[in-house]
Structure to design on (240 residues):
């Protein structure tokens, strides 16, 4: 029985990752970190009674992480997989960016991954096993204009992943990252013309589906990926 903790689990990607973890591992126990939005995550927990629970978690608060991890360990005795998925962007040109907007995006996307890894490493080190998958973004590698805050945060996630993977490799813990391109979730809301223009720039000529990112995350979290650590896996239809 493997225990999963997935953050931002009410969102498009988080919900897809949690659903596949529940469906592909019939004896998995899945904890869903939720903040404001909860409906989708609660509906998923109802579909899998006894195997799936929603727990309030603002990923920018270390105390909430520590409470979450102690609850999981006291209930299940272990924590096998952490998926740092929660995140979001708030775009704008740097010259006009208020410092609060910079800090908020860094906190949501990068500080959160530091807190999550720190809190979850404690049981994983004790177990001498664990899988951490950090959801970064293609923006970390492409660094588009208008996303200095988000691109810097997600590039930080890539560097954190690679550095941490070396710190914990000998303890049986792997740390990997996925970089999704344009995936059809709520964050991608755009006008029809912009959507068509975006699609025309993707070699596969379509947006990605949340399930396609979830498959990559669950592969990196699986026993099949036992010799993979520090990897940065693009899921982008061939953009980069
Ligand atoms: P969604 O907006 O659908 O989901 C984002 C989730 O993150 C929401 O559940 C949101 O919860 C949660 N979240 C945001 N801030 C916090 C916080 N401080 N504490 C707890 N939860 C928080 O977006 P996606 O599912 O598309 O995005 C998931 C991840 O994938 C993000 O890290 C995003 O940057 C990344 N990504 C997405 C891409 C895409 O094209 N969709 C492309 C590249 C990367 P709440 O309801 O409380 O706001």
């Amino acid at each position: 029985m493997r225990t999963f903790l997935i953050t931002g689990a009410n969102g498009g990607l988080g919900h897809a990752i949690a659903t596949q973890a529940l469906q592909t591992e019939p004896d998995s126990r899945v904890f869903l970190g939720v903040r404001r939005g909860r409906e989708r995550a609660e509906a998923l927990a109802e579909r899998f009674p006894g195997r799936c629970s929603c727990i309030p978690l603002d990923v920018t608060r270390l105390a909430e992480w520590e409470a979450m991890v102690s609850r999981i360990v006291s209930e299940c005795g272990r924590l096998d997989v952490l998926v740092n998925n929660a995140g979001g962007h708030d775009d704008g040109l740097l010259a006009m960016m208020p410092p609060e907007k910079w800090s908020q995006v860094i906190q949501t996307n990068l500080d959160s991954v530091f807190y999550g890894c720190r809190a979850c490493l404690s049981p994983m080190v004790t177990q001498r096993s664990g899988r951490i998958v950090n959801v970064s973004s293609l923006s970390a590698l492409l660094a588009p204009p208008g996303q200095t805050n988000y691109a810097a945060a997600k590039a930080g996630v890539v560097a954190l992943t690679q550095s941490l993977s070396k710190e914990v490799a000998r303890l049986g813990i792997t740390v990997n990252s996925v970089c999704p391109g344009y995936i059809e979730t709520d964050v991608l809301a755009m006008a029809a013309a912009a959507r068509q223009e975006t699609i025309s720039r993707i070699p596969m000529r379509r947006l990605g589906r949340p399930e396609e990112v979830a498959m990559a995350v669950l592969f990196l979290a699986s026993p099949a990926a036992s010799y993979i650590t520090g990897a940065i896996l693009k899921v982008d239809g061939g953009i980069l």
